[in-house]
């Protein structure tokens, strides 16, 4: 549980750093915003599933997203994840969660595997954002875990 909690502290820290960078840019980087919103929408979907609720009507991707939508999602997701993580124990990590994906296919995964997926999924797409920023002539955001723990 200690490792998962640290991963989620890093997730929030990395989301905050990406958000601040995207908010401070002159002109909008639509692809970076789209990728960032995907991270946040996916977090919301998985949080909803972990809560045992239906996620089928929640978006995963959006073609055009205002950065303020992302800012609100960062706050909402942090609050929801903090509440969820505060209320689970080590034994809850092996509990199976049943859910349907966006195509209606049913799956079961453990809470531990879902939480690990969400943290890794976000880091993957934050890397894509950094690649897009560099391609557009901006400095990538240092979101390395080791930088976070230093």
TrEMBL record:
The keyword Nucleus does not apply. Pfam families: DinB. SUPFAM superfamilies: DinB/YfiT-like putative metalloenzymes. It comes from the Bacteria. This is Damage-inducible protein DinB. One of its GO terms (molecular function) is metal ion binding. InterPro entries: DinB, DinB/YfiT-like. Belongs to the DinB family. Keywords: Metal-binding. A divalent metal cation binds at residues 38, 121, 125. The keyword Repeat does not apply.
